[in-house]
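Progress against Task 2.4 (sequence-to-structure conversion) is shown through the following example record, which the project officer requested during the mid-term review.
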Amino acid sequence: MIKQASKKNVVELSLLINAAYRGESSKKGWTTEADLLAGTRTSEEELETIIALPNHYLYKFTRCQKIIGSVLLIAKKDVLYLGMLTVTPELQNQGIGKQLLLKAEKQARLLQLNRIQMTVIGIRQELLEWYIRNGYEDTGLRAPFPLGKDDKILKDVVLDFFVLEKRLIDSK
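Structure tokens generated for the chain above:
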């Protein structure tokens, strides 16, 4: 079940997102950044701020009253930004991420936005390919990877973001 998250979900969401992106637990899934970056992916404070901001929608995917996935959607002027798509590492490859992408499309249509945009670390080829299989296209735009205060790059590689976009077909 996908529903909008609230402040009471912040602790569980923070644990989920950090476990899915960084550290040893993330290596149980295929979307890990653990070989690239050390540090926390997000904090409880950041999630509380996100939930309180207008035009920010943080959704949780629950099963048996446990949060096992999430996605952040930000309504901008003419595009819906998608970020922090997260699935519990042990449950990846079961269609949960796809359901969260479909929720994003539904939210975009509700907000009358016909494009969804996201950024993906460019050297994450398998992740880029997954999004492309799900209808996203590489725009050719690149952006520097913003290191957080706790982030540490673990490999001698350039981290940059590829900007991906999906255009939604107008149902009118």
